[in-house]
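C-alpha cells in:
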C-alpha cells in the first residue's frame, strides 16, 4: 500500500466539504484539522465569496507600504532618467534636489530600485581587473584648476554621411571642466593648434598638459617631442605623457569619453556640422548641469576658474643662463659642436638648444626648461637621460613650473664650460 499524498489546498477542500454537512460540529472539526475556529470560518467565508479558487494561498505582503515613495517623486525620477539616460541615482538626486527642494526624496539605493522596476537600468558587463604594477607615480598631481589639463582624441567614428569624425577633447583635471570638444576631419597639428590657442585665450595657460603617445601630441623622435609639444614648452607649459598602454593614468579624461560616446555618438548625427551641434549641447550640460560625485555633486563650472597665466600676444623668446652653450638646430636636425655635427631631432629644426657640461665628457641638452638628452663628447653621440624629469636646476626664463610641480632627479655639479 503506497502513501497518500496531500497538500494544503486538498486539506482546505476536504475541510470545506465536511463543514457544509448539516450535522457538522465546527469546533470538533477545527480541532481535528488542527486549526482555530477563526481560521475555519475565514476559509468558509472565502469559499462562499470566490469558490474553490479562493482557497489558494495569498501573498502575505502588506497592501500598503509605510515607506512607499510618493507617486509624484517616482514620476519625476522616471522623467529625469529619460532626459539623462546615462546619469546614475546619485547624479539624478543631486540634479533634482536643486530644482525640486523637498525633504522626502528617497535614498540613492531606492532610486536605483525604482529605475530597475521601470526597466531603465541595463545590467553591467562584468570585467576581470588586471593586476600588476601601478603606474603614474611620476605624474603631476592636479591640486587646483589649471595645474593639469588632459587632452586626447576620442575614438573616431563615421557620421551618417560616412565621413570620419575625430573628436578633440580637452579638460581640466581638477574640476573636470570640459574646455574643448571639437569634431575634426583629421588629427593633425595644423588642425588642433587653433583650438588649443582658442582655449588658451579664453581660459589662460595651464602648467601641464597630459596626453597619450599618439599623434599629434607625440612623435617617435627625441623624448617624443612633437611640434605641438614644442609650442607648449615655449609658452611655459610642460607636456606630460602617460605610459603607453596605460590609459588609466588619464582615467578622469577617459571616463568623460565614455559619457561623451553614450550621449552624442549613438547614433551619430547626419554630418560633421550637425555632430558639432550635438557636442556643443553636451559641453553646456556637462559643465553647467551634470553633477559630479568627486566634486560634492557639483557641476564642473562651479569649481573651475580661469588661469591667471594669460596667453601672451607673442611667443616668449627662449633664454638660457650665461653658463649654457647655445646651439641652433639645423633643418637637418643636427647641431654643430667642436667642429662635429651631431644629430638631435628634425622636429627641433630652427630651435635653440642649451648645453651644460656635467663632467669632462658629458653634456646635458636642454630645450627651454626641458632636459632632452646627454651628449657624449668622446664619440659625439646622443644618449638618453636616466632621470629626464629634472626641473630644479633649470633657470630658463618664463618656463619654470610652480613650486609644487618640482620633481626630483640627479643633481649633477655643473663644471665650467671649456671652449668648443
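Residues out:
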Amino acid at each position: 500500500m503506497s502513501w497518500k499524498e496531500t497538500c494544503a489546498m486538498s486539506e482546505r477542500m476536504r475541510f470545506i466539504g465536511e463543514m457544509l454537512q448539516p450535522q457538522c460540529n465546527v469546533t470538533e472539526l477545527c480541532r481535528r484539522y488542527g486549526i482555530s475556529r477563526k481560521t475555519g470560518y475565514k476559509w468558509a467565508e472565502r469559499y462562499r465569496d470566490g469558490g474553490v479558487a479562493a482557497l489558494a494561498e495569498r501573498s502575505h505582503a502588506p497592501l500598503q507600504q509605510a515607506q512607499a515613495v510618493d507617486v509624484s517623486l517616482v514620476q519625476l525620477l522616471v522623467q529625469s532618467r529619460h532626459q539623462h539616460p546615462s546619469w546614475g541615482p546619485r547624479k539624478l538626486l543631486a540634479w533634482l534636489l536643486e530644482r525640486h527642494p523637498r525633504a522626502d526624496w528617497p535614498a540613492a539605493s531606492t532610486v536605483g530600485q525604482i529605475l530597475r522596476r521601470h526597466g531603465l537600468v541595463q545590467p553591467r558587463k562584468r570585467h576581470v581587473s588586471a593586476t600588476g604594477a601601478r603606474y603614474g607615480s611620476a605624474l603631476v598631481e592636479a591640486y587646483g584648476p589649471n595645474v593639469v589639463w588632459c587632452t586626447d582624441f576620442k575614438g573616431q567614428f563615421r557620421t551618417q554621411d560616412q565621413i570620419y569624425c575625430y573628436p578633440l577633447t580637452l579638460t581640466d583635471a581638477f574640476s573636470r571642466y570640459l574646455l574643448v570638444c571639437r569634431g575634426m576631419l583629421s588629427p593633425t597639428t595644423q588642425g588642433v593648434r587653433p583650438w588649443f590657442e582658442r582655449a588658451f585665450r579664453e581660459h589662460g595657460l595651464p602648467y601641464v598638459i597630459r596626453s597619450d603617445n599618439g599623434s599629434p601630441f607625440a612623435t617617435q623622435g627625441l623624448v617624443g617631442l612633437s611640434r605641438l609639444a614644442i609650442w607648449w614648452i615655449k609658452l611655459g607649459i610642460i607636456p606630460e605623457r602617460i605610459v603607453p598602454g596605460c590609459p588609466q593614468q588619464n582615467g578622469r579624461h577617459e571616463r568623460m569619453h565614455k559619457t561623451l560616446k553614450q550621449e552624442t555618438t549613438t547614433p551619430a548625427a547626419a554630418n560633421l556640422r550637425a555632430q558639432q551641434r550635438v557636442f556643443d549641447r553636451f559641453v553646456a550640460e556637462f559643465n553647467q548641469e551634470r553633477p559630479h560625485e568627486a566634486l560634492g555633486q557639483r557641476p564642473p563650472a562651479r569649481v573651475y576658474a580661469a588661469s591667471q597665466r594669460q596667453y601672451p600676444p607673442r611667443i616668449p623668446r627662449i633664454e638660457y643662463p650665461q653658463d649654457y652653450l647655445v646651439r641652433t638646430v639645423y633643418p637637418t636636425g643636427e647641431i654643430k659642436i667642436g667642429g662635429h655635427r651631431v644629430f638631435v631631432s628634425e622636429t627641433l629644426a630652427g630651435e635653440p638648444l642649451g648645453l651644460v657640461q656635467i663632467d669632462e665628457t658629458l653634456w646635458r641638452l636642454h630645450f627651454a626648461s626641458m632636459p632632452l638628452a646627454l651628449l657624449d663628447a668622446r664619440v659625439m653621440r646622443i644618449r638618453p637621460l636616466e632621470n629626464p624629469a629634472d626641473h630644479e636646476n633649470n633657470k630658463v626664463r618664463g618656463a619654470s613650473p610652480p613650486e609644487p610641480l618640482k620633481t626630483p632627479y640627479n643633481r649633477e655639479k655643473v663644471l665650467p664650460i671649456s671652449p668648443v
